[in-house]
Specification:
Strand order of the largest sheet: 2-1-5-4-3
Number of strands: 5
Number of helices: 2
Oligomer: single chain
Protein backbone atom coordinates (compact mmCIF):
# COMPACT_ATOMS: atom_id res chain seq x y z
CA UNK A 1 0.00 0.00 0.00
CA UNK A 2 1.41 3.37 -1.02
CA UNK A 3 1.63 6.34 1.32
CA UNK A 4 1.82 8.74 -1.60
CA UNK A 5 -0.46 11.71 -0.99
CA UNK A 6 -2.05 13.83 -3.69
CA UNK A 7 -4.18 16.93 -3.90
CA UNK A 8 -6.33 17.61 -6.94
CA UNK A 9 -6.34 21.03 -8.57
CA UNK A 10 -9.06 22.35 -10.88
CA UNK A 11 -7.59 24.91 -13.29
CA UNK A 12 -9.14 26.97 -16.06
CA UNK A 13 -6.97 28.37 -18.85
CA UNK A 14 -8.27 31.18 -21.01
CA UNK A 15 -6.35 32.34 -24.06
CA UNK A 16 -6.79 35.85 -25.35
CA UNK A 17 -7.73 36.88 -21.81
CA UNK A 18 -4.81 35.61 -19.70
CA UNK A 19 -5.95 37.51 -16.62
CA UNK A 20 -9.10 35.35 -16.66
CA UNK A 21 -7.09 32.12 -16.25
CA UNK A 22 -7.34 30.81 -12.72
CA UNK A 23 -7.11 28.01 -10.22
CA UNK A 24 -10.64 27.22 -9.12
CA UNK A 25 -9.66 25.14 -6.14
CA UNK A 26 -7.47 22.53 -4.50
CA UNK A 27 -9.28 19.43 -3.27
CA UNK A 28 -8.24 16.60 -0.96
CA UNK A 29 -9.94 13.88 -3.01
CA UNK A 30 -10.45 13.25 -6.70
CA UNK A 31 -14.17 12.82 -6.07
CA UNK A 32 -14.45 16.36 -4.64
CA UNK A 33 -12.47 17.78 -7.56
CA UNK A 34 -14.70 15.94 -10.06
CA UNK A 35 -17.83 17.20 -8.33
CA UNK A 36 -16.62 20.80 -8.63
CA UNK A 37 -15.37 20.29 -12.22
CA UNK A 38 -18.73 18.86 -13.32
CA UNK A 39 -20.65 21.63 -11.55
CA UNK A 40 -18.54 24.38 -13.13
CA UNK A 41 -18.73 22.73 -16.56
CA UNK A 42 -22.53 22.56 -16.28
CA UNK A 43 -22.55 26.26 -15.40
CA UNK A 44 -20.43 27.05 -18.48
CA UNK A 45 -22.72 25.00 -20.69
CA UNK A 46 -25.83 26.63 -19.25
CA UNK A 47 -24.62 30.21 -19.68
CA UNK A 48 -22.70 30.17 -22.97
CA UNK A 49 -24.28 28.38 -25.94
CA UNK A 50 -21.41 29.30 -28.29
CA UNK A 51 -18.86 27.87 -25.88
CA UNK A 52 -20.97 24.74 -25.38
CA UNK A 53 -20.90 24.03 -29.12
CA UNK A 54 -17.10 24.35 -29.15
CA UNK A 55 -16.39 22.11 -26.12
CA UNK A 56 -14.18 19.11 -26.81
CA UNK A 57 -13.46 16.49 -24.18
CA UNK A 58 -10.31 14.45 -23.71
CA UNK A 59 -11.30 10.79 -23.52
CA UNK A 60 -10.14 9.13 -20.31
CA UNK A 61 -9.13 12.40 -18.68
CA UNK A 62 -10.86 15.01 -16.59
CA UNK A 63 -10.31 17.82 -19.02
CA UNK A 64 -12.01 19.72 -21.80
CA UNK A 65 -11.06 22.57 -24.09
CA UNK A 66 -12.64 25.03 -26.47
CA UNK A 67 -11.29 26.88 -29.47
CA UNK A 68 -13.28 29.78 -30.85
CA UNK A 69 -12.07 32.56 -33.15
CA UNK A 70 -11.70 35.05 -30.32
CA UNK A 71 -11.37 32.78 -27.29
CA UNK A 72 -9.64 29.49 -26.52
CA UNK A 73 -9.06 27.72 -23.25
CA UNK A 74 -9.75 24.70 -21.16
CA UNK A 75 -10.70 23.23 -17.81
CA UNK A 76 -8.83 20.36 -16.19
CA UNK A 77 -8.18 18.42 -13.01
CA UNK A 78 -4.51 17.91 -12.22
CA UNK A 79 -3.18 15.51 -9.55
CA UNK A 80 -0.30 17.07 -7.60
CA UNK A 81 1.94 14.76 -5.58
CA UNK A 82 2.84 16.09 -2.15
CA UNK A 83 6.42 15.81 -0.94
CA UNK A 84 5.45 14.53 2.48
Amino acid sequence: MSNTKFVYVVNEYVGGCPMDSQCHGVFTTLEKAKKYYNSYLLDLQTNDETLTEALQFTIGADSCFWDLDDLWGGLEITAVKLNR
